[in-house]
């Protein structure tokens, strides 16, 4: 029997959990008969998407919580549309102080916004519409994906082996993860935090990658690389843990870990401490459960090869990856052309009403809407100490995807 799944890993790394999403939920606007001309002019101005400010987004529920802040389900008070608002607490250190951790935090926060705005319209990657700030926080106004975390559905999955997915279902989801990763790599971005908690399902059941707080842009040259020891321990490649230089191959290792996780109920290497997990990743061989097929074992041995020179070079061997027998039932043509009428996702989330956030953990949705959220925040009008953070997508982009 598969082991009981661990609790969600939202606190397992020092970065806010980004459950990023959108759904068009319409709210009827009632304008009183004595609404003044001045107010009508203001209302008309605010209806333009590029005029949004923090107070225009009303907090509804908490969707997630991490080290630096929370993620809220918010509603545009003029259109009724729903968004996910990721809040990040600004550093309390004065901006002129040369503190290494402060500098890294600022760079990472701005980089997440920049990465999201560069990705634009890929179906398997969350979209950003606004980046705002006030004196205390950064705010990313993101697509609200009402189907919730893959982790949520994985913990609820049930078959004869326990809390795991069937192999064909795993192939479907991992194919969509791979498409998202490949798109990121083509843009020169290393994701660095693939795990079930960062994979969401949209209303139709298709997978969307979220949370780019640990991502890094290294360009399209393979001469560039990363060196930071960063990520969620169970899904980190051995070269990261050893402090070696690394690039896109770490994401394919993580994909192998997530495939193993979906099929068994836990990642391939686990332990009671980060040190124990690290030692196993670097030294131990993979122990496959007896029910893994030969095709699954073959693919995982290729993705989870500790030798980077022998690991599956998916980016440069994409066609070979797609034709691996593990994916034999996946309709890649329909996935890549977004012809979803030919696809039936393993899970189509039950969504009674998107505003209820019923596919997100009650651990978060039951939390109170505390002080300091956007409705009570004063937007920063002083000279921007975090130059380059604020952002508004084009009207056409907002209207197309909202």
Q: How much helix, percentage-wise, in residues?
A: 25-40%
Structural class by helix and strand composition? alpha+beta
Number of strands: 11
**Low-pLDDT ranges:** 14-42, 93-97, 372-376
Distance between the termini: 43 Å
Number of domains: 2
Overall description:
Keywords: ATP-binding, Kinase, Nucleotide-binding, Phosphoprotein, Serine/threonine-protein kinase, Transferase. With 402 residues, the chain is an alpha+beta fold. It folds into 2 domains: 22-146 and 356-397, 2-Layer Sandwich (Phosphorylase Kinase, domain 1); 150-342, Transferase(Phosphotransferase) domain 1 (Transferase(Phosphotransferase), domain 1). Helix content is 30%, strand content 13%. The strands form 3 sheets. Strands 1, 2, 3, 4, 5, 6 and 11 form a 7-stranded antiparallel sheet that branches. α4 runs antiparallel to α6 (249-264) and α6 (249-264) packs antiparallel against α8 (294-303). It is globular, with a radius of gyration of 22 Å. It starts with 21 loop residues before the first strand and ends with a helix.
